[in-house]
Amino acid sequence: MGAILDGKKIANEIQSEVAHRVKLLKEAHKRVPHLAIILIGDDGPSHSYVSGKTKACQAVGFDYTLLQFAATISEKKLCKHIEQLNEDGDIDGFIVQLPLPQHISVEHITALIDSKKDVDGFTNHNFGSIVSDHPLLLPATPFGIMELIHRYHIETKGKNCVVVGASRIVGAPMSLMLMEQGQATVTVCQEFTQDLKGHTLQADILIVAVGKPGLITADMVKPGAVVIDVGTTRVADPSKKSGFKLTGDVDFDQVLPLASFITPVPGGVGPLTIASLILNTLKAYDRQHA
């Protein structure tokens, strides 16, 4: 039976460490870190994610500003708001909550963000720093996963790691971090990779970030593997008050008896993403006030 990798527990540890630092700043009569969040439209999951981020700011003692705009906002107007945040000396970091309306280019918006304030770690400057000796603000979700692996003392050096999903947000930076920081042997797959099962069965550490519920079944997992499920998809569930439940990319009940460690959904990677965002904001604050 696999041991549960408790993302909430590790996230709380990280946030407690940040809160202690904020306490010291207040005692020294210094300004505390300030995070700004841009939220566009009425996407339900986005509002939920942003709520989690503002609550985390409150928990650690950060200042925060939430800027909400209608889904009809023009790209030009959004760019002006980003430029204002770039220039605002009281804002240490900010994020633009994804997804964006179809008429707004994510690539264009990301390119406008000052890399010193890019606490999501999405800009080319921060992304590229993954493969340097001095990484900067790392993409939040893979950063959180690396913290989870480290704090559970899971060995990565020389291990076979398979990452399913190659998005710029999770899969691609995750593979680079495992190679650079973890000294692992890494294979990157897609959900449509030929003989996906043949690849996943080789994994000592399997990380799945596709967004396809139940993609990974028990026959695709090597006994004793560490399984980290990044997928979070809302599926209908009449038994829930909300009418839906969150489901990962891994068939949790089937895989649990096989894995040495496994993350649940929810309660696994999600809280770590928010904790990493908070930690990145503190790092951005420190770098701008060094």
Protein architecture, described:
The chain is α/β, with parallel strands linked by helices. It has 2 domains: 30-114, Leucine Dehydrogenase, chain A, domain 1 (Rossmann fold, 3-Layer(aba) Sandwich), CATH 3.40.50.10860; 140-269, 3-Layer(aba) Sandwich (Rossmann fold), CATH 3.40.50. It is built from 10 helices and 11 strands. It has helices at residues 7-27, 44-60, 75-87, 106-112, 124-128, 140-151, 171-180, 196-200, 252-255, 269-288; strands spanning 3-4, 34-40, 63-69, 93-96, 160-164, 185-189, 205-208, 226-229, 233-236, 244-247, 261-262. The protein has a 6-stranded parallel β-sheet. Strands 3-2-4 form a 3-stranded parallel β-sheet, covered by helices on one side. A two-stranded antiparallel ribbon has the order 9-10. Helix 1 runs parallel beside helix 10 and helix 6 (140-151) crosses helix 7 (171-180). The longest helix is centred in the N-terminal third of the chain and has 21 residues, at 7-27. It is globular. The model has no long low-confidence stretch (mean pLDDT 95).
Which descriptors would you attach to this protein?
Rossmann fold, single chain, 17% strand, 290 residues, globular, 2 domains, alpha/beta, 6-stranded parallel sheet
Overall body shape: globular
Can you tell me the CATH topology of the largest domain?
A: Rossmann fold
Distance between the termini: 47 Å
Strand-and-helix sequence, N→C? EHEHEHEHHHEHEHEEEEHEH
Can you tell me the CATH class of the largest domain? Alpha Beta
Helix fraction, binned, reads: 25-40%
What CATH architecture of the largest domain do you see?
A: 3-Layer(aba) Sandwich
Instruction: Let me know the CATH homologous superfamily of the largest domain.
Output: NAD(P)-binding Rossmann-like Domain
Let me know the average pLDDT. 95
Class per helix and strand makeup: alpha/beta
How many beta-strand segments? Answer: 11
**Looking across the biggest beta sheet, what order are the strands in?**
1-11-8-7-5-6
Based on CA atoms alone, the radius of gyration comes out at 19 Å
When the domains are counted, the total is: 2
Biggest sheet architecture: 6 strands, parallel
Amount of beta strand: 15-25%
Number of helices: 10
**Unreliably modeled segments:** none
